[in-house]
Amino acid sequence: MFPEHRPRRLRGTAALRRLVSETTLRPRQLILPLFVAEGADQPRPIASMPGVVQHTRDSLRKAAVDAVRAGVGGLMLFGVPEERDATGSGAVAEDGVLNVALRDLRAELGDDTVLMADTCLDEFTDHGHCGVLDSSGAVDNDATLEVYAEMAVAQAEAGAHLLGPSGMMDGQVGVIRRALDEAGYTGTGILAYSAKYASAFYGPFREAVDSQLKGDRKSYQQDPGNAREALREIELDLAEGADAIMVKPALAYLDVLRAAAELSPVPVAAYNISGEYAMVEAAAANGWLDRERTILEVLTSIRRAGADMILTYWATEAAAWLD
Ligand code: PBG
Fold first, then answer.
1. How many Cβ atoms sit within 10 Å of the Cβ of residue 173?
2. How far is Cα 181 from Cα 243, in angstroms, rounded to an integer?
3. How far is CA 187 from CA 114, 179, 181, 183, in A?
4. Would residue 214 show up in a list of annotated catalytic residues for this protein?
């Protein structure tokens, strides 16, 4: 008899396929990134991310409640300030947009969801870099760490459960851990953006936060060609006290994600970023892809590659489909 082996047998009915399915995708594994704009009286659409907006304080609260009702596992907040300066002082200020929004959501949702904050200066600096600059205009690693420490304490005070340092400064996890502990926030965790690449796929995000960046982030984010380096970054973050780690972007880096998942003793996140969102939305809007099937395939593939959790702008909608 030929063929001797028939893998198709287990694909014959929906029930068989369900039974042998290897990868789960559940709402609780999804994290919704949200943008909140200081002084906005209307939600502002982001042209390159159809369906995503810069929220007002009120619309943010509503979007957060909707996400939690849909079963989404967590929220990651980004602030868009009205004023920016060289040191990103709005990131540290108690009345800075991100800290105000964290307070709002913690008051609204308590511990019903996991509230996370982007711990990075790029949204708050007038030059758009993730840190402060030295006199030559280069990003000053150690001076930036001092600001991150203050920012982290402000975010913990404002109610974040997990902080997401995304600036790729050397030592950022260790400095933040120490600052949190010294301020008494021993229970506030760190989701470290450990392997973050200098990616063209961040393009739409720059619009989402009105980024002032000219140039690029190649002196601190990783070269897309390097995988070994990602493992070193992860090991350093673990040694410095990361409670969970992240690989970012997701789709073009599934090999890095797989390697990270194999070595990590802590949960692994992947960020399905703005450019990945924009590509699918644009193709679907043209009728070139089946939107829902594509989105679920993207998210399932990121899970299959090893992510325990996925940051995705589709979180609320996908959670509703999965329910
Ligand atoms: C930095 C940060 C960025 C993103 C998340 N955190 C932008 C960057 O590094 O340039 C990108 C997320 C996305 O593209 O969806 N604060």
1. 26
2. 14
3. 13, 12, 8, 11
4. no
248 is catalytic: yes
Q: What is the gyration radius of the CA atoms in the chain, in angstroms?
A: 20
Buried b / exposed e along 106-121 (16+ C-beta atoms within 10 A)? bebbeeebbbbbbbbb
Contact predicate 56/38, CB 8 Å: no
Q: How many residues does the chain have?
A: 323
* For the CA of 196, the nearest atom of ligand 1: 9
How far apart (Å, rounded) are the C-alpha atoms in residues 234 and 245?
7
Domains annotated on the chain, with CATH: 24-322 (3.20.20.70)
**Interface predicted TM-score of the whole assembly (ipTM), two decimals:** 0.96
User: Which tens digit of pLDDT belongs to each residue from 197-239?
Assistant: 999 999 999 999 999 999 999 999 999 999 999 999 999 999 9
> Best substitution site from 121, 202, 217 to test ligand 1's pocket, by max atoms within 8 Å of Cβ?
202
pTM of the model: 0.97
